[in-house]
Amino acid sequence: MQFGRSYEEFEVGATYKHWPGKTVTEYDDHLFCLLTMNHHPLHLDVHYAEETTQFGKNVVVGNYVYSILLGMSVPDISGKAIANLEIESLRHVAPTFHGDTLYGETTVLDKWESTSKDDRGVVHVETIGYNQDGKVVCIFRRKVMVPKQNYLEARGGEQPGRPVPQPDKNWSGPAPS
Fold first, then answer.
1. Helix crossing, 26-35 with 62-73: angle to 10°?
2. SS (H, E, C) the chain
3. What is the pLDDT of residue 158?
4. What domain of life does the UniProt record list for this protein's source (predicted)?
5. Can you tell me the distance from the alpha carbon of 169 to that of 177, in angstroms, rounded to the nearest whole number?
6. How far apart are CA 63 and CA 43, in angstroms?
7. Contact predicate 124/107, CB 8 Å
8. pLDDT at residue 162, rounded to an integer
9. What is the phi/psi pair of residue 171, to 5°?
10. Rg, the chain, Cα only
11. FRET partner for 154 with CA separation of 20 to 30 A, picked from 41, 43, 55, 72?
12. Per-10-residue mean pLDDT for the chain, 177 residues long?
């Protein structure tokens, strides 16, 4: 399975559909809120959400929705990234609720070679996230610095830093071919 792409593998206009989706549970949302110290009752207090909001139920905290979508995109977009340079825009366009399943896809808007180093480039992408009904809930654009093939080759290829299993008393080594 591919994990990220080199600069040469990105094509302007290409869309990558991230798989699998992620069903957001109440536990996920509450844990994220508590870990990030976001104690807004819209996310944590069912009674508050039912009685005082237009939604009538808890809304999943937006930064968690964004984080899920960003994470979903890693195998297709930034798995080989040198750096995430910028989040240009982030819009939450509809609420996500407990029990919704999120899906995402990313389109390559543009790409250009680095002006300071010839072994990398920048890819400008837009990711949309939508629920099980196809309703778009989040849209963000970002710029990612990605390596060119020569950068990867100089650092160990597709899986740099991966160790080689060493024979010992528990494993005698690969079977003869």
1. 100
2. CCCCCCHHHCCCCCEEEEEEEEECCHHHHHHHHHHCCCCCHHHHCHHHHHHHCCCCCCCCCHHHHHHHHHHHHHHHHHCCCCEEEEEEEEEECCCCCCCCEEEEEEEEEEEEECCCCCCEEEEEEEEEEECCCCCEEEEEEEEEEEECHHHHHHCCCCCCCCCCCCCECCECCCCCC
3. 78
4. Bacteria
5. 21
6. 12
7. no
8. 84
9. -150, 125
10. 20
11. 72
12. 91 97 97 94 93 95 97 95 96 98 98 95 98 98 95 82 90 86
Tell me the pTM: 0.89
Task: Provide the token pair at 21.
Answer: 């989706």
- Cβ contacts of 104 within 8 Å, gap of 6 or more: 17, 18, 68, 69, 72, 73, 127, 128, 129, 130
Amino acid identity, residue 88?
Answer: E
- Tell me phi and psi for residue 113, to 5 degrees: -75, 150
Confidence (pLDDT) at 156? 80
Residues in the chain: 177
Which residues 6+ apart lie within 8 Å of 166 measured at CB?
none
Distance in angstroms (rounded) separating the CA atoms of residues 154 and 132: 42
